[in-house]
Amino acid sequence: MASIQALRGTRDILPEEVGYWQLVETVAREVLSRAAYQEIRTPIFEQTALFERGIGEATDVVGKEMYTFKDRGERSLTLRPEGTAGAVRAFIENNLAAQGGVQRLWYTGPMFRYERPQAGRQRQFHQIGVEVLGSAAARADAEAIAIATDILQTLGLKNLHLNLNSIGNTEDRLKYREALVAYLTPFKSDLDLDSQDRLTRNPLRILDSKDGRTQAILQTAPSILDFLSPESHQRFEQVKSLLSSLGITYELNSRLVRGLDYYTHTVFEIQSEDLGAQATVCAGGRYDGLVGELGGPETAAVGWAIGLERLVLLLQQLQIHLSVGVDFYLVSRGEAAEAEALVLAQTLRRAGFSVELDLSGSAFGKQFKRADRSGAAACLILGDAEAEKGTAQLKWLDSGRQEEIVQSNLPAMVDELRQQIAAIRNSQA
Questions:
Q1: Which of 410, 379, 413 is nearest to 395 (CA)?
Q2: I want to staple 329 with a disulfide (CB 3.0 to 4.6 A). Which of 84, 232, 350, 371 is the partner?
Q3: Which of 335, 303, 300 minimizes the C-alpha distance to 135?
């Protein structure tokens, strides 16, 4: 019988990789917590209409990439292709606006799009995202970008570039759309097939085309920055000034529009030079009309998302150091010793240490080899002789130094042991 394998576009995240995921999640949680962001958890599937209305029916995401199905009640449901629409639906449904002030929300979890699988992007992919709801201030844009930058830099990433643009308000964008269509229409037959289709449905997305011929045509296309109203222009200048005051350098990219219909004003991408073609690790922007579009009160908002697969791939490529290995590896042999070792392992765990208990029952020699490979700071050894005396052999694996300890004395030794383990980890860093 043939074995069942993971579906194309999905993958298993195995233990040796999970450490990178945990590192990203821990750093993000700490940075976001310090900035007073609160975690929100929304359903993995929603009504299809949420994404049709929120993202836009003319987008590739809605038109081509969503996983949509009917449940037994004949309701059309969709696995979430992104996180913003669900967060906004939760904001409206739970009347978070009534709490007053600004809602700073963040989330993490899997998203789903039927795309061509590639390095750093699967059909089931994961994001960390933030949504700031209730502020139209340019400071909110700059703060959101600054926090994303903090997360990436804290992880050790260095070769980062911020691409920045403004797509103005609805009126600005309509004027620009007319100008872009007028410019591109004479070249329609020379555009790639996707761009020909987008010319009537979603012409701004043509700016994202990777086709060489289309890009050549776009070289002399009008710039959206030339169609910003005085108010939109002034707002964008404020964003740029605030970023400069934060020491965040940026590059203007007038072709950056992002692929979802809800964006207004500021849009941005943070890219890494170390990722090759798929360089974007964080992207987002402002979306002042989305809450109202989904039936809530008119609410200004800005947000972003970090793709975790792509970020983890980058951390692996850069060989970002991970602190691995448990504090103690516990070796035992003999019936009495094995039972006592379990008690000792739990005692140490309750004291805050990480402990791997060898459950193999194999000879001491094999257990010692596994202890050496474990990355543990120290090995605790119990045989029948130690079990009888209530002792254990403590061996520090970096130096080979070994001493006998009394198990009942362990509570009094906790601080000393913790200091010695910390010293070992620091020397290994």
A1: 379
A2: 371
A3: 300
pLDDT tens-digit readout, 178-195? 999 999 998 888 888 888
Element (H, E) at 175: helix 170-184
Q: Which tokens is 338 given?
A: 């094995």
Q: Is residue 212 part of a domain?
A: no
The verdict on 125 and 266 lying in the same domain is: yes
Cα–Cα nearest to 386, from 422, 334, 429: 334
- pTM here is 0.85
Q: How far apart are CA 81 and CA 225, in angstroms?
A: 29
SS3 of residue 418 by DSSP: helix
Q: The domain containing residue 154 runs over which residues? A: 15-169+229-317
CATH number at residue 401: 3.40.50.800
Give, as one character, the DSSP assignment of residue 271: E
Beta-strand ranges (E) seen in 146-227 are 160-166
By the 10 Å C-beta count (0-12 exposed, 13-18 middle, 19+ buried), 277 is classed as exposed
CATH number of the domain at 261, please. 3.30.930.10
Cβ pair 305, 127 in contact under 8 A: yes
Residue pair 365/313 in contact by the 8 Å Cβ criterion: no
Residue 56: pLDDT over 80 = no
CA 187/CA 426 separation, integer angstroms: 62
**Do 302 and 339 fall into the same domain?**
no
Task: Quote the radius of gyration of the chain (alpha carbons, Å).
Answer: 27
Find, among 81, 101, 79, 80, the residue nearest to 91 by Cα: 101
- Tokens for 251, please give them: 């590059």
Question: Do both 242 and 350 map to the same domain?
Answer: no
Nearest to 392 by CA among 330, 327, 326: 330
Helix, strand or coil, per DSSP, at residue 310: helix
Shared domain for 82 and 119, answered yes or no, is yes
Q: How far apart are CA 387 and CA 405, in angstroms?
A: 12
* Tens digits of residue pLDDT in 58-94: 677 887 899 999 999 999 999 999 999 999 999 999 9
Identity of residue 223: S
Q: How many domains does the chain have?
A: 2
| Contact partners, residue 251, CB within 8 Å, separation at least 6 | 161, 162, 163, 164
Amino acid at 208: D
Q: What is the per-residue DSSP string for 34-99?
A: HTT-EE----SEEEHHHHHHHT-TTSHIIIII-EEEE-TT--EEEE-S-SHHHHHHHHHHTTGGGG
